[in-house]
Amino acid sequence: MASTEQEAAPVEPTPPKQVLYCQVCTFPVEYCEFGSSFTRCKEWLQKENPALYDKFYSEEALQAKIGTLSLEAQEKLEKDTAKKEAKAEAKADAALKKKMASTVTIKRIERNKRKHVTAIHGLEAFDVDLKKAAKFFAQKFATGASVTKNMQGLDEIVVQGDVSGDIVEMIEDGVGLLKNVPKDNIVEVEEKGKKAAS
Amino acid sequence: MFKKFQPSADVSGQVSVKSSVQRNIRASILSQWNINPETFEQIWPKKEPLTLVKCREHISIYTLHGEPLFFQHFDGPFFPTLRLLHKYPSILPMVRVDRGAIRFLLAGAHMMCPGFTSAGGSLPPADAALPPNTPVAIHAEGKEHAAGIGLTKLGTEEIRKVNKGVGVETVTYLGDDLWKIQQL
């Protein structure tokens, strides 16, 4: 259907409009003032595109903007923005702290006398794609490795065979996918004589 | 619709779309949006396969090489994603809200009638009035780009007359979870 129309009318396609998105809050730059990181957005824009910065944040532009709103409403808006910003910052801080506090547990589980599996838990806190990491381990150690849910219902990687030492080493060296994992957060655990028979 | 949307939890499956279905989609989009086939060819070249991402509550998002292009709720009209709308602003009819409403729009609220009828807002003129349940681009006073996409709950003439309550339901807006997903 589309093709017949195309032949009939050789219209030039309209080129897409280029929109400058803020690298800090991902909004189009004119909406930064409603985001939660306005101060940082402003700094970024000033560095990146001074002309646009002047357009939005020069004295005149601010005056023109205030003109359309009552003074009270403007004040309230500013207050709200500041509050929102503080909140977002606190949230980001808390998230970072939590990330730094979270641990990667490497558990060696005895499956059968002399046979072990290694369960790695907590990698996802450090932006590791579990599926990819499992694949990587499987390839590296030439064994089976999979992402499974453990008893708490959390995702972990289970690698067949006792590879706990190697994995600790890999994290310390920061191989490929694991480069964001801080080595101080690793905990090694050994589990023997499981209760739940599988 | 996308205020809370986690790809890990809300996506139930991805399939590539049959070519006959793709043809249907293309035809219906061309009839629904204000866009000529040549321009649409740029957005979605004919040879490229489209992927359907099925989500909870019968939302289907269509992606091209992992990038969401448009979505649909049940068998409703197709909505472009906000990023696509920014590139081609003319594909949806435009309504504008006043400055006071931006804050609420970016928090995901539905747009109330007075926001359109006050000094800062604007609606299409009477000879181009929109019926209810039309996808619209929600622009904001003093801003160049759209801040959200909505579905009219009342006809535009009715909005003027009633001037109370929800006029346009917000479907997606700047900073919601669909906006944050750049790759699916």
Automatic annotation (TrEMBL), chain A:
Its principal location? cytoplasm
Please provide the Gene Ontology terms (biological process) for this protein: formation of translation preinitiation complex; translation reinitiation
Indicate the segments forming the SUI1 domain, all copies. Answer: 104-175
Entry note about domains = The SUI1 domain may be involved in RNA binding.
Q: Name one Pfam family in it.
A: DENR_N
Identify the species of origin. Polyporus arcularius HHB13444
Name of this protein: Translation machinery-associated protein 22
CDD domains assigned: DENR_C (cd11607)
NCBIfam families found in the cross-reference section: DRP1
> Where does the UniProt annotation locate this protein?
Cytoplasm
Protein family membership: Belongs to the DENR family.
Q: Which InterPro entries does the annotation name?
A: DENR/SUI1_TIF, DENR_C, DENR_eukaryotes, DENR_N, SUI1, SUI1_dom_sf
On subunit structure and binding partners, the annotation says:
Interacts with the 40S ribosomal subunit.
The terms describing its cellular component in GO are: cytoplasm; ribonucleoprotein complex; ribosome
Write the record's keywords in alphabetical order, separated by commas: Cytoplasm, Initiation factor, Protein biosynthesis, Ribonucleoprotein, Ribosomal protein
Could you name the domain of life of the organism this protein comes from?
Eukaryota
Q: Name one GO molecular function term.
A: mRNA binding
TrEMBL record, chain B:
Superkingdom, according to UniProt? Answer: Eukaryota
The record's principal subcellular location, in a coarse class, is cytoplasm
Subcellular location field: Cytoplasm
The UniProt record lists the keyword NAD: no
Q: Which Gene3D superfamilies match?
A: 3.10.400.20
Q: Which Pfam families match?
A: Pre-PUA (PF17832), PUA (PF01472)
Q: Which residues form the PUA domain?
A: 93-175
* CDD domains in UniProt: MCT1_N, PUA_MCTS-1-like
Nucleotidyltransferase found in the keyword field:
no
* GO MF: RNA binding
Q: What is any one of the record's Gene Ontology cellular component terms? A: cytoplasm
Q: Which UniProt keywords apply?
A: Cytoplasm
In terms of SMART domains, this protein maps to: PUA (SM00359)
GO biological process terms on file:
formation of translation preinitiation complex
Protein task: Involved in translation.
Q: Which family does it belong to?
A: Belongs to the TMA20 family.
Q: In its UniProt entry, what is this protein called? A: Translation machinery-associated protein 20
